[in-house]
TrEMBL record:
The chain crosses the membrane at residues 25-46, 52-71, 187-207, 213-231. Coiled coil: none annotated. This is DUF4231 domain-containing protein. It comes from the Bacteria. Residues 9-158, 161-281 form the SMODS and SLOG-associating 2TM effector domain. The keyword Transmembrane applies. It comes from Vibrio stylophorae. Keywords: Membrane, Transmembrane, Transmembrane helix. It holds the Pfam family SLATT_1. InterPro entries: SLATT_1, SLATT_3.
Amino acid sequence: MQVQEDSLPGLYQSANKASLYAQNIYYLCLSFYLGILVIAAAVSFFVPVNTYGAVVSALLFFVTLGILIYLKTYKPDDTWYNGRAVAESVKTLSWKWMMKAEPFHEDNSSEVNFINDLKNVLKQNQSLSTILNSSEGAKEPITDMMRTIRSLSFDSRKTLYKNQRIDDQADWYSKKATFNKKRASRWFRIAVLLHSAAIIMLIFRVYDSSQSLPVAVIATAASAVLTWIQAKKHNELSSSYSLAAHEIGFIKSEWKSITERDFSDFVINTENAFSREHTQWIARKVDT
């Protein structure tokens, strides 16, 4: 029995896809914007100062202006974060419901309470209503897989929760921490290389002022790399994901001793731990 994306409510699937799409659009626009700025700097250096060069430069800056207007108007980064918040909230609620954790421990009222909580999540994020997929939203909020898991014995639910929720999250955070650490190191080396190149060119020009070197192009590229590093936040993510992975490690060590009486509180505390890193990340984004 494997819990897949389509095992969760349609709201999760729709919000997750909307978030991933908006994230891709945001980084695509940002990469084009920074890349075109570097190209514009290169054109101003290598292309002769004439009508042709002026037209090309103007067109390039017109494109960058269009990208800025698009990002400001449509705000894909807001859609990305709001969609992620909805998706993670729905996933947390779904796992609590499947594991019979409070407030879904009573069978006679659990479905009503669960659906009401889903409605509240959507109500608090009404800005997403225009981009959520209607076909996925039309699906039953409680899937057959969710009902099947909820009907399992305590021991079966406990084992499934450990294998498919706790272990899955531990593996995800561990891999993401390693990935972001490597990316942070790679972009740092690129930034150092570009700054070193600019310094060497400036020193060389001191000895031979007649030489025309693309210092401005290299400086623009270095600034673009710095902006990209700040946008991706690899270092911050690596530290945050690493901390979350260690916290999940502590949770795994507690799992064996959990009894049926303690299981509801264990699930609630575990889900809070899973959402803590994401909630803090959302808050940091809002503050910027």
